[in-house]
């Protein structure tokens, strides 16, 4: 996961992408979009990586996991997030 400050819960992830809990947890394991501090603890999910998986964008997810924040495939997901954050306080 890249951004610990912007993590969301499984429930928030379900609402965000319209999938059920089992799918979200499976994606956490399969695609590395979330983590648990210890087994049985709540999942902390990266919403940017979640969106990439939900859109089937493996290229963006790979680049994101590699830390390529200036990759155009990654920027397509980062910019809407930044606009939402910047626009929310105005």
Number of strands: 2
Helix content: 55-70%
3D shape? globular
- The neighbouring-strand order within the major sheet is 1-2
Number of helices: 5
Low-pLDDT windows of residues? 83-90
Mean pLDDT: 88
SS class:
mainly alpha
Work out the radius of gyration.
13 Å
Beta-strand residue percentage: under 5%
Order of helices and strands: HHEEHHH
Question: Distance between termini?
Answer: 29 Å
Largest sheet: 2 strands, antiparallel
Written account of the structure:
With 90 residues, this protein is mostly helical. The protein has 5 helices and 2 strands. A two-stranded antiparallel ribbon has the order 1-2. α4 crosses α5. The longest helix is centred in the last third of the chain and has 17 residues. It is globular, with a radius of gyration of 13 Å. The N and C termini lie far apart (29 Å). The C terminus is likely disordered.
Write a compact overview of the structure shown.
The protein is mainly alpha-helical and 90 residues long. It has 5 helices and 2 strands; from the N terminus they run H-H-E-E-H-H-H.
Fold blueprint:
Blueprint: H1 10-17, H2 21-31, E1 34-35, E2 44-45, H3 47-54, H4 58-65, H5 72-88
Antiparallel strand pairs: 1-2
Helix pairs in contact: 4-5
